[in-house]
Glycosyltransferase family 2 protein
Amino acid sequence: MTGPLPITVVILTFNEAPHIRRCLERIRPLVQRMVVIDSFSTDDTPSIARACGAEVLQRRWLNYADQFQWALDNAGITTEWVLRLDADEYFEPASVDEILHRLGTLPPDVTGVNFRRKVIFRGRWIRFGGFYPTILLRLWRHGAARIESRWMDEHVVLQRGRSVTFAHDFVDENLNDISWWTDKHNGYATRQMIDFVAQEQQLFARDSALEKSQSGQARLKRLLKVHVFARMPLYLRGTLYFLFRYFILLGFLDGRQGFLFHFLQGWWNWMLVDAKIDEARSFIARHGLEAFKLHLHDRWGYRL
């Protein structure tokens, strides 16, 4: 087959001017439609996206799952396939060729396609520490999948049919500096805290669709996170996770940049999550659950 294929790519953005052109220009030959859901960026993201041929819709941000599901429900998607992509991600040429040659040959019962994610951090491919390959469902037949309703670590889950895994990679390469990176992960840590505390306090039912889905890497990781990692003592689990990842899973082979990545993303990030959980538990003990909900809204703008 030759492009464009009957695919709509959906990309969520907020201040992604350093990335959005690269993302759109690399995917444009492959897809019929590009839709950017922008959370009222204050930089040139919307204008760059329009100049690259994308349609831009704007909506206030709550969390990734809420925003993406809104796009699926409201963007008027009519193509056979839907592709999920982040602004700082792109497909390698070999992966584009594979999609062009294989997508039209898939039988009707194949409703999803998994891809291998390659993370590049400060110019270094993170190959070890359990990070490569991370296999993710990113392309599916329209109407055959939904995104989990979670505050963090959301996945697209098939509701019918089966998936196949293509051989080539897509790349996650953020070009921002380390201050931006740590600010971003501070936000991630807050949403992880909300997920954990919400389950402890039974604020809403946990979306367990991935845990009940077909076997796969994402499902196994989620089961370990929910049934093993989440039950470990605060602060200890982040330390053990980093040691396991860095030494047992050979993260030290990723060199100097790899050490920084595994330390920050594997240890610092989870210590920060646990500190926020600890703080939230203390707040609830002193002021009550309803006051905590108000605090989430007043402090971070999150409404449960």
Observations:
- Residues 11 and 86 are 5 Å apart (CA to CA).
- Residues 255-287 form the longest helix (33 residues).
- The chain has two domains: 5-173, 178-300.
